[in-house]
Specification:
alpha/beta; 29% helix
């Protein structure tokens, strides 16, 4: 079966409760069925942390907050 990519999007770059929860969800995904990816809308320590965990991470720096 083909693996399904799951893109998680988060606006914050700092590591707080939402980021910890998201990282836990991505860690626990069944890697036989899913490929977790992350899109961060600002820079901070969260994206590098996810990369260290082996999660493909993209950063799109927003000029204005959503």
């Amino acid at each position: 079966m083909k693996k399904l990519k799951v893109l998680q999007v988060i606006g914050g770059g700092e590591i707080g409760g939402a980021e910890r929860h998201l990282l836990t969800l991505m860690r626990l995904m069944d890697r036989e069925r899913f490929i977790p990816e992350l899109l961060c809308l600002c820079r901070g320590p969260f994206a590098p942390q996810c990369r260290r965990e082996g999660i493909t991470t993209h950063e799109v720096i927003m000029r204005h907050k959503l």
